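Go through this one:
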Amino acid sequence: MLTRPRLYIRENGYRLLGRASLLLGFIFLLAPIVLLIVFSFQKNIYFSLPLQGWTMQWYHQMIYEGVLIDAVLNSLKVSLPAATGASIIGFCAAYALNRFVFPGRLPMATVLILPILIPPLIMGVALLGLLSRLGLQGELYSVIIAHTLVFTAPAMAIIQLRLAQMPPALEEAAWDLGATELQAVWRVTLRWALPGIGGGWLLAFTFSFDEFIIAWFVAGFDETLPVAIYNAMMAEHRPTLNAIGTIVFGLLLLALLGAELLIVPLLMRRGTARAGR
């Protein structure tokens, strides 16, 4: 049997080991991003240490490289409608799954979540084959269709989390006050679900803007930003890639923080409601 001092030392040792492992994991994940940001401000064209000085020329040059700017615009053209479509379909699916009991309810939920569980490579090949048969491959709207299909699942999950906190009596009260079913959904349910819809939209937008493999398969000549960056890296080294990568990282980080500000209160409210029961 271990004495109390030895037990205390062992517990502290395990705790320190866990914290050290967590710290190393964060360093491993964040080091490439930090290097990307640092090297986007260095004067030298190639990565080198020590740094040769600081400059903003790569950010200025990025503006004049039409290929990357067009790729950013293409990504926005894809991500905005894809996130909107995923949020609309996700809300309709979440509402049906929360409010109604019908045959095939569980298989329907499984089918809606399935695209996000399939490896992107397999999903990209499957979507390329399907869109080719329909004559829809090689255009930006092909990527919009693919991303809407794939990223409906995370949007639906967030919206369903919000709708699960809504008392069904609110809709019933709206009906008693003379509202039709559609009016009750529009004026009561939709307003209640707005934080979840906003969080789901931001999450779907972030995933869509950053997605590479599916877009690479179905986009054709209209490249999204991840595809354009990949092709540029395969052709030659461009310091402007560090600059645009830094800007995109900042924008996506803001989007994720916005989604977290909407999603975390939902989780806390759900936990509070369960504790109250």
